[in-house]
């Protein structure tokens, strides 16, 4: 592995990384940082949990001019949680580089954000909606921004932020450097790169299987009416330290949360209907292990890096391989092992096959404890039936004295009176003389 000193990172930033226990660069950092430092537009495809954040933050912070009191770099993220997470990393690094940074997202007091923007932060991290709001209010100036990062670009496209992102890009400097970082690269992201990038460098880190290898993936057959019972059974069996349960909709997440809470589990929900204060409080409790289970929609699947998540439950099977990868990527991070359990009913196997095709692997099918006990009981019953049959067969009496002498196939019957005629022989029955007549003419 390559150290950050060998990559040319200044000592002050290396000291900050060392204080957080980070000494060596990951593959994506080792390959992407030279491209970013050289000023190239780049498309970096790497899975979540591989260190993409430092791959773009470190070279960008090094290139920002502390003496210029204007916004010089912009990082756009699809969710508030991801923006907050990147901002925490940037805060310690920017302090060591003597530059200022600011995180902007919806749900915060916009007047306070205006006050902070008047101080001209040199690095801004934010979500598309709130950044566009400030742009329209003319409370943010992006004209001097020459370094732009779209983190989790595919998720921004999926959530419908394409027009907002394009508006923000057009407000930045004409000679900007644009960097796309994401776990997947669908066609919409490629179209965006073709329109706004100049000779982009494509970098794909083949780390998908490395990351997924740390996760034990299983599927469990279930029915909708027994899914909650099955979930509780597996939670009791697995005893996770921290677990995330993913549902398709906010209503489903709320329903599962209420059902688990009624059964005594330490559980809460995370979805878009919560205010920012509520979401922050829920995540804080979950990180402190005051909650054991977090029921969430896909809004929490991207960017959240919560230490100690040992299990991920796909209560509702994801619609595609991309969502599946991002969901289960919440566990098995930082060298730890994790387990991902996906519930599947009889009508969802086509969807499962598409997911397996996307991850290029087969997911092991696991029986629940109740199912295993049922199978073992059935096998024991069949074994007892076979043993009784063998015992009964051994004690069976012969049908006659001839059966012992002539073999079991004889069955004590005498078939000599029913002997078959030889093939091709003719009977003389039709040539017998009639009664009272002589055979001679």
Please tell me about this protein's structure.
- With 441 residues, this protein is an alpha/beta fold.
- It has two domains: 11-205, Rossmann fold (3-Layer(aba) Sandwich), CATH 3.40.50; 214-372, Rossmann fold.
- It contains 17 helices and 14 strands.
- The protein has helices at residues 11-19, 27-37, 52-63, 80-96, 110-117, 128-137, 153-158, 162-170, 187-196, 208-212, 227-238, 250-262, 276-287, 321-328, 349-359, 369-395, 401-406; strands at residues 42-45, 73-76, 101-104, 123-126, 147-151, 177-182, 201-204, 215-221, 242-246, 267-270, 293-296, 309-314, 338-344, 364-365.
- The protein has a seven-stranded parallel beta sheet, sandwiched between helices. A seven-stranded parallel beta sheet has the order 10-11-9-12-13-8-14, with helices on both faces.
- Strand 3, helix 5 and strand 4 (123-126) form a beta-alpha-beta unit.
- Helix 2 runs parallel beside helix 3 (52-63), helix 6 (128-137) packs across helix 8 and helix 14 (321-328) crosses helix 15 (349-359).
- The radius of gyration is 36 Å and the shape is elongated.
- The mean pLDDT is 82.
Tag the structure with descriptive keywords:
single chain; 17 helices; Rossmann fold; 42% helix; seven-stranded parallel beta sheet; elongated; alpha/beta; 441 residues
- By CATH, the superfamily of the largest domain comes out as P-loop containing nucleotide triphosphate hydrolases
Fold-level CATH name of the largest domain: Rossmann fold
Question: What is the helix fraction of residues, given as a range?
Answer: 40-55%
| Count of helical regions | 17
- Can you name the CATH architecture of the largest domain? 3-Layer(aba) Sandwich
Radius of gyration: 36 Å
């Amino acid at each position: 592995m390559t150290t950050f000193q060998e990559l040319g990172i200044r000592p002050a930033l290396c000291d900050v990384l060392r204080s957080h226990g980070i000494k060596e660069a990951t593959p994506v950092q080792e390959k992407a940082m030279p491209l970013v430092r050289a000023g190239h537009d780049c498309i970096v495809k790497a899975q979540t949990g591989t260190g993409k954040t430092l791959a773009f933050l470190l070279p960008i912070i090094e290139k920002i001019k502390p003496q210029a009191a204007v916004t010089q770099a912009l990082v756009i993220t699809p969710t508030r949680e991801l923006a907050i997470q990147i901002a925490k990393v940037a805060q310690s690094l920017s302090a060591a580089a003597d530059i200022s940074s600011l995180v902007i997202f919806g749900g915060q007091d916009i007047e306070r954000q205006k006050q902070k923007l008047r101080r001209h932060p040199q690095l801004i991290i934010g979500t598309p909606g709130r950044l566009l709001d400030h742009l329209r209010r003319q409370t943010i100036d992006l004209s001097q921004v020459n370094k732009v990062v779209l983190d989790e670009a595919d998720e921004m496209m999926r959530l419908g932020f394409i027009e907002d992102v394009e508006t923000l890009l057009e407000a930045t400097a004409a000679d900007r450097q644009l960097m796309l970082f994401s776990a997947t690269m669908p066609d919409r992201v490629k179209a965006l790169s073709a329109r706004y990038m100049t000779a982009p460098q494509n970098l794909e880190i083949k780390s998908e299987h490395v990351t997924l290898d740390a996760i034990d993936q299983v599927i469990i057959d279930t029915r909708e009416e027994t899914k909650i019972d099955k979930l509780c059974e597996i939670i009791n069996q697995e005893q996770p330290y921290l677990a995330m349960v993913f549902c398709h909709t906010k209503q489903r997440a709320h329903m599962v949360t209420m059902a688990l809470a009624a059964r005594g589990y330490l559980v809460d929900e995370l979805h878009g209907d919560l205010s920012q204060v509520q979401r922050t409080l829920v995540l804080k409790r979950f990180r402190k292990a005051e909650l054991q289970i977090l029921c969430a929609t896909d809004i929490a699947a991207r960017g959240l890096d919560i230490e100690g998540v040992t299990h991920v439950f796909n209560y509702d099977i994801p619609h595609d391989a991309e969502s599946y990868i991002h969901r289960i990527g919440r566990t098995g991070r930082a060298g730890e092992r994790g387990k991902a359990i996906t519930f599947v009913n009889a009508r969802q196997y086509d969807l499962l096959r598409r997911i397996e095709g996307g991850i290029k692997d087969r997911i092991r099918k696991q029986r629940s404890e109740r199912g295993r006990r049922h199978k073992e009981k059935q096998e024991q019953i069949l074994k007892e039936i076979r043993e009784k049959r063998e015992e009964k067969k051994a004690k069976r009496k012969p049908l006659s004295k001839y059966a012992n002498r002539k073999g079991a196939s004889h069955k004590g019957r005498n078939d000599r009176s029913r002997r078959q005629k030889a093939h091709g022989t003719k009977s003389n029955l039709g040539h017998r003389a009639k009664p009272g007549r002589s055979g001679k003419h």
